[in-house]
Each structure stands twice: as structure tokens, then as C-alpha cells.
């Protein structure tokens, strides 16, 4: 009897033993696969079940470093027009370039995003107040940044645009020029650049605002520069009996020193205003003060 039982148990083990081993191995492989595989995307570890939930996150793989929200493709732009978006670029500095349909560059300049830290996105919103007349109805806006290593254009976004018909006027802003006066021998001499802007009755205000924006990239490449501090703002401008009274904020003469620099600042402001026949002389003030300002 005992021998019969042992023989039965031995046969039972030989039958169920392999089945038990197979079951254990199958369970182990199942749980290993479940733990190893991402929810939806086998290329992104820990990807959410709904990939749309992660769109717009700065950490998303292969996310563009420049995003443009305005203008959108084929939008009609006039004067002025806005550029809005986000950028994650070196020193938060990016460039924009507007071309006509023939590829001619109408305006090019740089701007900065307000990124909170290195490697993070920063939003930006800027207004382009001036660019030359386009010879075609269609054009393109390019937004990109320059590589600090080799100067190549990176992460370029190209947006097709249509030029709107707008009423415009042309006026001048006056700057120094290192090509026309390479040795800075004539500090009181300023040279004009022409700016096309939306039609306005406040031409003196518009001209000074164009002056305070400084030269754009194209003008800088032609040797133009400004001696006026960045951040300088126009408080007010009035013209009375041939005299233009221009009042600025305190940035106008902040840390300004040297007779040449002072002469250059005055020349830029005075020349910009004297382009108008109604202006014979100019009085410059800072927050209402006319004394002890722009001293050498």
C-alpha cells in the first residue's frame, strides 16, 4: 500500500512540476513587461497615457525652442504689427527678420524673452512699428537665434504673411555713423535713416520714438549707432513759436560723461526734431529739469 502511494505521488510530481515552473515563469514575464513598457509610447519612459496632456511642457522631447503664436500663418500684417511667442535660447536673445515675396529683407532686429532661468522658456511680445514698403503682397517672417559657436541660424520658424494696405508716412531718425565718421571727429554730426510708419498727426512724437528705438540690425550693419541710453523714454513733446520742448526720463543722462557723448546725444535729438519746418530750436529737459543735465 505504501509503495503504491509513493509511486502515485512520484507520478503526480512529475506531471505537475513542469506545469508549475511554466506558470511561475509566465507570471514573472508578464509583470516584468508591464513594469518595463510605457503607457502609450515605447520611446518615452514614463509617458502619460494621454500624450496631449504633455504638449507645451518645456521638458517634452524634441520640443521646438521657439514658438510663435502671433502672427499666424497667412495672417495680414500692417503697421505696426505684433510678434508674440515663447523662446528657450542662449541668453534669452532671439532675432526676427521680415522679408517680401522676392526674399528682400525689409527689417531685421533682435529682442529678448523674459525667461526666468537658463534652459527655461520665456514669453515675449514685441511691436514692429516700421519697415519699408513691400513690392509684393506676400512675405515671410523669420524668428530664430544665432549660434554662439559659429553664428549659424538655429531653430528658425518661418511664417508666411500677407501685407495689408495701410496709410503711411515717412520720417527720419538721426544717429551717429562709424562708416561716415570712422574716427568720431565730428561728435555733433548726426546722420538720417528713413522710417516708414503708420500715418499720424503726431509726427514729432513719432520721430522721437523712432529715434529712441535705436538702429535696427540692417542699419547697424551700415555703421549707424546711437549715443542715447537704452531705456530712455519720451515724457512729452510740444512745439511753440518754433521751439520744440522735449522732455525725457532720467535715463537720458544716466552715467553720461564726456563732451563728445553729450554733443552726440544733443545732435541726435535736435536733428530729429529740426527735420520739421516748424522747429527752429530745441529745448531738452529731463523730468522737467533743464539745468544741470547732459553735462560733459
UniProtKB/TrEMBL annotation:
The chain crosses the membrane at residues 12-32. Residues 204-295 form the GerMN domain. Keywords: Membrane, Transmembrane, Transmembrane helix. Residues 49-59 have a biased composition (Polar residues). Coiled coil: none annotated. Residues 43-64 are annotated as: Disordered. InterPro entries: GerMN, Gmad2_Ig-like_dom. This is GerMN domain-containing protein. The lineage of its organism: Bacteria, Candidatus Terryibacteriota.
Amino acid at each position: 500500500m505504501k509503495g503504491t502511494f509513493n509511486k502515485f505521488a512520484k507520478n503526480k510530481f512529475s506531471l505537475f512540476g513542469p506545469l508549475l515552473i511554466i506558470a511561475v515563469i509566465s507570471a514573472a514575464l508578464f509583470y516584468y513587461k508591464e513594469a518595463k513598457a510605457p503607457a502609450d509610447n515605447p520611446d518615452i519612459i514614463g509617458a502619460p497615457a494621454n500624450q496631449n496632456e504633455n504638449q507645451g511642457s518645456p521638458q517634452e522631447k524634441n520640443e521646438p525652442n521657439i514658438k510663435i503664436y502671433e502672427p499666424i500663418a497667412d495672417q495680414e500684417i500692417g503697421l505696426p504689427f505684433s510678434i508674440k511667442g515663447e523662446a528657450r535660447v542662449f541668453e534669452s536673445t532671439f532675432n526676427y527678420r521680415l522679408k517680401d515675396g522676392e526674399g528682400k529683407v525689409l527689417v531685421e532686429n533682435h529682442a529678448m524673452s523674459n525667461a526666468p532661468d537658463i534652459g527655461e522658456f520665456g514669453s515675449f511680445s514685441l511691436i514692429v512699428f516700421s519697415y519699408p514698403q513691400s513690392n509684393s503682397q506676400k512675405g515671410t517672417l523669420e524668428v530664430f537665434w544665432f549660434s554662439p559657436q559659429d553664428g549659424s541660424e538655429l531653430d528658425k520658424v518661418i511664417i508666411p504673411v500677407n501685407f495689408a494696405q495701410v496709410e503711411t508716412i515717412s520720417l527720419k531718425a538721426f544717429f551717429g555713423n562709424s562708416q561716415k565718421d570712422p574716427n568720431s571727429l565730428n561728435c555733433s554730426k548726426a546722420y538720417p535713416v528713413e522710417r516708414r510708419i503708420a500715418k499720424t498727426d503726431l509726427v514729432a512724437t513719432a520721430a522721437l520714438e523712432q529715434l529712441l528705438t535705436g538702429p535696427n540690425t540692417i542699419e547697424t550693419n551700415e555703421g549707424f549707432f546711437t549715443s542715447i541710453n537704452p531705456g530712455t523714454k519720451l515724457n512729452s513733446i510740444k512745439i511753440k513759436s518754433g521751439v520744440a520742448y522735449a522732455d525725457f526720463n532720467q535715463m537720458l543722462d544716466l552715467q553720461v560723461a564726456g563732451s563728445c557723448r553729450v554733443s552726440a546725444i544733443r545732435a541726435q535729438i535736435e536733428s530729429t526734431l529740426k527735420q520739421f519746418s516748424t522747429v527752429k530750436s530745441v529745448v531738452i529737459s529731463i523730468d522737467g529739469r533743464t539745468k544741470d543735465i547732459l553735462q560733459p
